[in-house]
Design goal:
By secondary structure, the chain is of the alpha+beta class. About 35% of the residues lie in helices and about 40% in strands.
């Protein structure tokens, strides 16, 4: 089992219920295929760096999970079939990234915080 982080940008025209349903769909897809969801983080509506399909905002969602190495190809097929997804990126996390994410979630200083002026 490898650790991964998936960032998905959904179309901004989704309702709150559709946004939550899409999150639940992919989290359950991970579980159904032998994976484990470690953490979910819905960022909400954010501005895009450049327009995608004539949209300047998107609904961001980050999912941290562990799954077998052949799972990502199945996930990619599911995401590409979904018309509500503007962009996605799956990243394999090494042990340092997993440790960093765990520290950040628990509130332990990671050394990358901004110092208040």
């Amino acid at each position: 089992m490898n650790n991964y982080e998936l960032m998905v940008i959904f179309t901004p025209v989704l309702s709150e219920e559709d946004y939550k349903a899409a999150q639940k769909k992919y989290a359950s897809f991970v579980k159904e295929n032998g994976g484990e969801v470690l953490h979910e983080n819905p960022w909400g509506l954010k501005s895009l760096a450049y327009p995608i399909q004539k949209k300047t905002t998107g609904l961001y969602w980050v999912l941290e999970y562990s799954a077998p190495s052949d799972f990502n190809e199945k996930l990619k097929i599911q995401i590409l079939r979904d018309e509500t997804v503007l962009r996605f990126m799956a990243t394999k996390l090494d042990k340092y990234a997993v440790e960093y994410n765990t520290k950040k979630r628990s509130g332990v200083p990671t050394g990358t915080e901004k110092v208040g002026a």
